[in-house]
Amino acid sequence: MFGKCIVKGEDVLKEEGYGDQDSRWKNYVIMICFILVYRFITYVILRYKCSESGIRGFLI
């Protein structure tokens, strides 16, 4: 009883709705969105740091 698993991990994931092909594409979309958001935040930070007149030059 203590050495063997009764239910496989794949079965649990499928039961919760994470084992199908749709969830894979959702994960790809979420990953791409994270990348784009991080790149945008980095751009804003670099734009602010490199601007000579500070926040006023950044906004205008």
Q: Structural class per helix/strand content? A: mainly alpha
Spell out the helices and strands N to C: HHH
The average pLDDT is 81
**Cα radius of gyration in angstroms:** 22 Å
Shape: elongated
Would you identify the regions where 5 or more consecutive residues have pLDDT less than 50? none
Q: Number of helix segments?
A: 3
> Percent helix among the residues?
over 70%
The span between the termini is 68 Å
- Biggest β-sheet, characterized? none
DSSP strand count: 0
Total of domains = 1
- Give the percentage of residues in beta strands: under 5%
Keywords: Membrane, Transmembrane, Transmembrane helix, Transport
Protein name: CDR ABC transporter domain-containing protein
Pfam family, one: PDR_CDR
Domain CDR ABC transporter: 3-54
Task: Explain the overall architecture.
The chain has 60 residues and is mainly α. It has one domain. Helix content is 72%, strand content 0%. It is built from 3 helices and no strands. The longest helix is centred in the middle third of the chain and has 30 residues. It is elongated and about 65 Å long. The chain starts with 8 loop residues before the first helix and ends with a helix.
SSE topology:
Blueprint: H1 9-16, H2 21-50, H3 55-59
